Amino acid sequence: QVQLVESGGGLVQPGGSLRLSCAASRIAFSLYAMGWYRQAPGQRRELVATVISDGTTNYADSVKGRFTISRDNAKNTVDLQMNNLKPEDTAVYYCNARHGVDFWGEGTLVTVSS
User: Reduced to 3 states, what is the DSSP secondary structure of residue 60?
Assistant: First the structure.
């Protein structure tokens, strides 16, 4: 069974940085498009960023220039570097693996507050 385990969430002040990491197991990692999504309280889950196997990336407009997604096909990991965090970035962040079907991690909470 595919496992996606997120780490790196926490509390940070506005303007601060966090790095999220997702470790994938039991998966042909290099075949999958990997992504980060987030869900704020009372909101729908939304795309944050994706990276496909060749490294091509895509970002939500709200995070362009602040967040960077990267993957390591040798280590089966995908990271999300988040800089200049804003209170509106507060959400549970989910790792996603997609190759015809979707797999999800359980999420990690990011809270941006002073």
Answer: coil
